[in-house]
Write a structure and sequence with these properties.
The protein is of the alpha+beta class and about 260 residues long. The protein contains 10 helices and 10 strands. The chain has 2 domains: about 70 residues, Phosphorylase Kinase, domain 1 (2-Layer Sandwich), CATH 3.30.200; about 190 residues, Aminoglycoside phosphotransferase (APH), C-terminal lobe (Aminoglycoside 3'-phosphotransferase, Chain: A, domain 2, Alpha-Beta Complex), CATH 3.90.1200.10. Helices cover about 45% and strands about 15% of the residues. A hairpin with a 5-residue loop joins strand 4 and strand 5. Helix 6 runs antiparallel to helix 9 and helix 7 crosses helix 9. It starts with a helix and ends with a helix. Pfam families: APH (PF01636).
Length: about 260
């Protein structure tokens, strides 16, 4: 990174799962750098969903480096996920034809429940040798039983990881949703299920969803439950594959909570 910016810049890793993000700083400027971000970043920046994209540079080896504003701010805490502005920003994302058109042009096809289930089952064949848990098999069986009842023909851009860590409030009071590496075209219930099951008390769901912009029905709730369980399984598998067994156990406890809440176990 130093040869791109010059020797007067201090560059430090920004963490994250990919190890491809960096903070860069001089006496006068601060940037957030990332290697091989998706072209999708430009549209997200134009829509004000992520901090402003400053420049993009292609290296001789084909890598692409992007530089965004490095803003003072903080991630939301779990309690703040109830705020109407979270619902409003997620609604803006889900209803953006510009974001959807760009992601489709980048080759993303609508992700269907049967595709998600197939991927989970294939991964589990390997992971059962490492850590077979009864709760995992109960969850997979539930997904199998309900997969054809949660089909939906409306697809939007989904962030796919609406964890509170990915919501950033700047010092200027602007809310952003960051880390779009796993974005997909899918049922909006995929994002909504994860967010509501993890952060919003169930007796407040209808109010939150009205702030999001819909009047929920039983099919929406059914789809949210299915996607919240499938996402929980996907995250458990992801951590197990990386040898992060403590994180996997934390996610498993969350999965058990959701399943007990709805009489699945």
């Amino acid at each position: 990174m130093e040869h791109i910016l010059g020797s007067n810049w201090t560059i430090t890793p920004a963490g994250g799962s990919t190890g491809e993000a960096y903070y860069a700083q001089t006496d006068e400027k601060r940037l957030f750098l990332k290697r091989n971000s998706s072209p999708f970043l430009a549209v997200l920046s134009a829509e004000g969903i992520v901090p402003k994209l400053i420049w993009t540079k292609r290296l001789e080896n084909g890598d692409v480096i992007t530089a965004q504003e490095w803003l003072d701010g903080r991630e939301l805490n779990p309690e703040e996920m109830k705020h109407p502005r979270v619902a409003a920003l997620l609604s803006k994302i889900h209803h953006s034809t510009e974001l959807l058109d760009m992601l489709m042009r980048l080759g993303k096809h609508p992700l269907t429940p049967d595709e998600i289930l197939l991927d989970i089952k294939e991964n589990q064949k390997v992971l059962d040798k490492v850590d077979p848990r009864i709760e995992i098999h109960q969850a997979v069986r539930y997904l199998e039983q309900e997969v054809w009842n949660v089909q939906h023909d409306v697809h939007v851009v989904c962030h796919c990881d609406t964890n509170h860590n990915n919501w950033m409030l700047s010092a200027r009071d602007h809310l952003y949703l960051i880390d779009w590496d796993n974005a997909m075209v899918a049922d909006p219930a995929l994002d909504l299920g994860m967010l509501l099951y993890n952060y919003i008390p169930e007796d407040y769901w209808e109010t939150w969803l009205k702030e999001y912009g819909i009047q929920p029905d039983s099919h929406m709730f059914q789809r949210m439950k299915w996607y919240s369980i499938s996402q929980a399984l996907s995250f458990i598998q992801w951590h197990q594959m990386r040898g992060e067994y403590h994180e996997s156990s934390v996610r498993t406890e969350k999965l058990k909570t959701i399943m007990k809440q709805h009489g699945i176990i």
